[in-house]
Write a structure and sequence with these properties.
Order of helices and strands: EHEHEHEEHEHEHHE
Structural class: alpha/beta
Strand content: 15-25%
Helix content: 40-55%
CATH class: Alpha Beta
Distance between the termini: 29 Å
Strand order of the largest sheet: 3-2-1-4-7-6-8-5
Number of strands: 8
Shape: globular
Length: about 190
């Protein structure tokens, strides 16, 4: 049903945290495959993917958009979920994701979804965090909130531009507010 694409930037700790949060989704049969996408060539993510039973995708380029586009190109499922490394989905995401996919299929309308952002309760608040919070309210969701989208919808809107700066924000803008749903399930960034 769902391919999860995680750009890792070679950091094991954040990737493992995200993978651990996805185990219930795999057990429930919602997740068909997980792709760890990494361009650092340090071998760390290849070992993590091997141990976790994921697919490892190496890519050329240094942009986040290149990593996301490479993962989408290799994904095999009709639905794609893009998550940043270090993203932990709160309990309830499996049921809500399944309901969203079923509702989109029944409606015949192109829709995508992002998760509700939540700061880690253990993180210290800085001015930077406050500014990002204001930005989320003004401009809408940011790339660190994940994205759930049907593969054919992703392809129709052109996907992530591999060479562009801020490719996550560009894709969210192309989706527009009217075809984007903010899910109740929260995404918390760790690490």
């Amino acid at each position: 049903m769902l391919s999860v694409i995680i750009p890792t930037e070679g950091v094991e700790q954040t990737a493992v945290a995200t993978l651990a949060a996805l185990v219930p989704g795999a057990a429930a049969g919602v997740i068909k495959e997980v792709l760890l996408v990494d361009g650092t060539r340090n071998g760390v993510m290849e070992r993590v993917a091997d141990v976790a039973g994921c697919r490892f995708i190496g890519y050329e380029g240094s942009s986040q958009g290149a990593a996301l586009a490479a993962g989408a190109l290799q994904a095999r499922s009709p639905w794609l979920m893009f998550l940043p490394a270090g993203a932990v989905l709160e309990t309830g995401w499996i049921e809500e994701t399944t309901q969203f996919i079923q509702a989109v299929a029944a409606s015949g309308r192109d829709r995508a979804a992002v998760f509700r952002y939540a700061r880690s309760p253990y993180a210290e608040t800085s001015l930077h965090d406050v500014l990002w919070s204001v930005a989320r309210k003004l401009v809408g969701p940011l790339g660190d909130q994940g994205l759930l989208i049907a593969r054919d919808h992703y392809d129709r809107i052109g996907g992530y531009p591999p060479q562009a700066r801020g490719s996550e924000a560009r894709l969210l803008r192309r989706l527009g507010r009217s075809s984007r749903t903010l899910l109740r399930s929260r995404i918390v960034m760790v690490g």
